[in-house]
C-alpha cells in the first residue's frame, strides 16, 4: 500500500492555502504558469502548467506515484468537477454528505463517499493499489491528520504573505503537531518544495 | 549602509512565531538546543545554543553581519532585557512609548527610541554603520515592512503546526505582499533556513 500525502499543496509564507474569500490564487499559483516546462493536465478546464524544470521533475514524480485522490465536496463544487476529470488523471474520491444528483453512479472519474474521512481514504487506497493516495484541500488534510491517516505533508511554499484566508490545517484540534524533516527540499522558481513526514 | 532584515526568525509551518498565549516556544526553539555545535550568547540569561553545523554556520555569518538590533518594548519586557545584554552581543534599539524608569540613559547595551519605527531603524543604522540592522519580533517586522524599511526576510521554518498564536506579519495592512526568492536555502536539522528579498 502506498502513502497518504498532501502531495504538492501550495501554501503562502504565512500559512494560507487560499486568501480571504477564496482570493489570492493568482499569487499562490503563479509558479504553475511561470516556467518553461509544460505539464499537460487531464482536465478540459485546466490549461497545461508551465513550471520550472525542478518543479516539473517533482510534479511528474508525484503524479506518477499517485493512484487516487481524496477531495472534499467544496473543492469539487468550486472547480465544477474540473470539467469532468481531475488534472492529475486519476479517479477522485469525493467526500460528501450527499451524492450529487447529476452523478447517480460512480465511474472512473469520480467516486462519492458519504461515510467520513476514514471511508474515503480506504476507498481511495483500494483504487490506488500500490500507489499513493493524495488528499487535496485544507479540510481534508486536517481531517486526515486528526484521524492519524496522513503519512506525509508536501508543501509548495510561495513567497507571498496573504494576511488571512484558509489555513492548511485550519481548525486543527490536536495542535501542536510536530512533523519530521523536511525529508526533501527542492528549489523551484518562485516556490520551494518541502516534504515532511507525520510522526506516528 | 547594511541591510534591514529579520535575520533568523523562527516560524512554525503554519506561520506563527509564538503559539497561543506565548506558548510553543519549546517546540519552535528546539533546533536551538538539539545540535552539536555550541554558539555562545552574550546574555547572562540565555544559555549557549547547540545547533547543527549548517545552522551554526548560518548563525555565525548572520551574527557577524549584524551591527544593531531593533526590538519592541514587549519583547524587551518579556525577556527582562535579556539579563542586561542581547544574546547577539550588539546594541539593541528598543522602540517604546515611554523610556523605562530604571534606564535613564542610553548605553552600549540598550538605546530607547520613542519616535516610531522610522526613527528606531534610523538610530540602529547609525549604530550599525556598514553592518546590517536586524528587526526582531512580529510587530517590528510588520511595521518595518509597511514602512518600506525592510530589505530581507530570514525565516527558520520548523516542522510544527501550532494552530494559533502570533503571526510573523500579524495584522499586515498592505497584504498581499510578494517577496523575491528564496535567495538562499540552508537545511539545518529540524529547521529549514529561508531568505527572501522584499520587492521595492
TrEMBL record, chains A, B:
Q: Which residues cross the membrane?
A: none
- What is this protein called in UniProt? Deaminase
A GO molecular function for this record?
A: 5-amino-6-(5-phosphoribosylamino)uracil reductase activity
Going by the entry's taxonomy, the superkingdom of the source organism is recorded as: Bacteria
The organism is Streptomyces benahoarensis
Q: Which GO terms describe its biological process?
A: riboflavin biosynthetic process
Q: InterPro entries given for it?
A: DHFR-like_dom_sf, RibDG_C, Riboflavin_Biosynth_HTPR
Q: Where is the Bacterial bifunctional deaminase-reductase C-terminal domain?
A: 9-175
Amino acid at each position: 500500500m502506498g502513502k497518504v500525502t498532501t502531495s504538492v499543496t501550495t501554501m503562502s509564507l504565512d500559512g494560507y492555502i487560499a486568501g480571504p474569500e477564496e482570493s489570492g490564487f493568482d499569487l499562490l499559483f503563479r509558479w504553475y504558469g511561470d516556467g518553461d516546462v509544460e505539464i499537460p493536465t487531464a482536465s478540459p478546464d485546466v490549461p497545461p502548467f508551465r513550471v520550472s524544470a525542478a518543479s516539473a521533475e517533482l510534479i511528474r514524480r508525484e503524479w506518477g506515484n499517485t493512484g487516487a485522490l481524496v477531495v472534499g465536496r467544496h473543492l469539487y463544487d468550486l472547480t465544477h468537477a474540473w470539467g469532468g476529470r481531475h488534472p492529475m488523471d486519476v479517479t477522485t474520491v469525493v467526500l460528501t454528505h450527499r451524492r450529487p444528483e447529476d452523478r447517480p453512479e460512480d465511474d472512473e472519474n469520480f467516486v462519492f463517499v458519504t461515510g467520513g474521512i476514514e471511508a474515503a481514504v480506504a476507498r481511495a487506497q483500494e483504487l490506488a493499489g500500490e500507489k499513493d493516495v493524495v488528499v487535496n484541500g485544507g479540510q481534508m488534510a486536517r481531517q486526515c491528520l486528526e484521524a492519524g491517516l496522513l503519512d506525509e505533508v508536501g508543501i509548495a511554499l510561495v513567497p507571498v504573505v496573504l494576511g488571512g484566508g484558509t489555513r492548511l490545517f485550519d481548525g486543527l484540534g490536536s495542535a501542536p503537531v510536530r512533523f519530521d524533516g523536511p525529508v526533501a527540499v527542492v528549489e523551484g522558481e518562485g516556490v520551494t518544495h518541502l516534504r515532511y513526514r507525520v510522526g506516528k
